[in-house]
From TrEMBL:
Residues 1-183 form the AAA domain. It comes from the Bacteria. SUPFAM superfamilies: P-loop containing nucleoside triphosphate hydrolases. This is ParA family protein. It comes from Allohahella marinimesophila. CDD domains: ParAB_family. InterPro entries: AAA_dom, DNA_Partitioning_ATPase, P-loop_NTPase. It holds the Pfam family AAA_31.
């Protein structure tokens, strides 16, 4: 099982879209894929027609399951599997979000041993999935820290626009701190998104990303494509909604590059 997290401390950069697009493509290749919605806003959960305000059984239950007085923080072995839901895409499952997750940051502040809860939960699903994609909140807190501790690699979507690079620097700073405290190296790829080749601002910021991060920026960019919004309104992964769009082709290329590097490092 390979766990990939999709993170940026800025909202609206294409995190959820990247999770859905890559998840759909992997499932289309016959992989068993799990999407996990860590964001209390629950966009990924809403994408597949569930209401994060009313839904029963979510990521929230995993975090509250370990709040026992013995302090062992063990996730019950059968719990994660009970929370999974099918999606409109065969082979793609969802571990949904509840808006209650927003209360976790306050509830868990100062509670010892909460950093590895998600990692332990996913450990119980190890034999069920080939890939797990984690969709994140932009807020730096216990959920994002858990996500970074549970993954083998990170995708950082960055919108190709004027102010995006500041958010990117913040995210990379967080990543450096986390890697230092966990004493491990986490490979990451910066993925330029919503690239619009008709605008100077988009071209300039893509050039800047490639210049400033020559080793870690993906060699291409995800173009702006209105079909992503149409796909989300239809509740379908983009590759099932319309496999021929530029956006889907770009995510297919990203996936090829990702899988290539995973095989290079022998992680599959
Ligand atoms: N490449 C793209 N082209 C056009 N619209 C996009 C693209 N990627 C994402 N969007 C749209 O932009 C909005 C924000 O994207 P989203 O993936 O929800 O960002 P995040 O999860 O980082 O907040 C959504 O309405 C989504 O449909
Ligand atoms: Mg999102």
């Amino acid at each position: 099982m390979q766990v990939i997290t999709i993170a940026n401390q800025k909202g609206g950069v294409g995190k959820t879209t990247t999770a859905v697009a890559l998840g759909g493509l992997l499932a289309g290749q016959g992989k068993r894929v799990l999407l996990v919605d860590l964001d209390p806003q629950g966009s990924l959960t809403s994408y597949f027609g569930h209401d994060p305000d009313t839904l029963q059984g979510s990521v929230h239950d995993i975090f509250t399951s370990v709040l026992n007085p013995d302090g062992r923080r063990e996730v019950p072995a059968d719990l994660p599997a009970q929370l999974l839901r099918d999606t409109t895409c065969p082979g793609l499952m969802l571990l949904p979000a509840s808006t209650l997750q927003a209360t976790l940051e306050r509830k868990l502040a100062g509670v010892e041993g909460m950093g590895l809860v998600l990692r332990k939960a996913l450990g119980h699903l190890r034999d069920e999935f080939d890939f797990v994609l984690l969709d994140n909140t932009p807020v730096l807190g216990v959920l994002l820290i858990n996500s970074l501790a549970a993954c083998e690699r990170i995708l950082i979507p960055v919108q190709t626009e004027f102010l995006a690079l500041m958010g990117l620097e913040r995210m990379l700073h967080t990543l450096t701190m986390v890697m230092r405290s966990q004493k491990r190296l986490l490979p990451y790829i910066i993925v330029p998104t919503m690239f619009d080749r008709r605008t100077g601002a988009s071209i300039k910021s893509l050039r800047r990303i490639k210049h400033d991060y020559p080793e870690t920026a993906w060699r291409y960019a995800i173009p702006i494509d209105t079909r992503f919004r149409d796909a989300s309104q239809a509740g379908l992964v983009p590759s099932l909604f319309d496999p021929s769009t530029h956006g889907v082709k770009a995510y297919t290329r990203l996936l090829q590059d990702l899988i290539g590097t995973i095989e290079d490092t022998g992680l599959t």
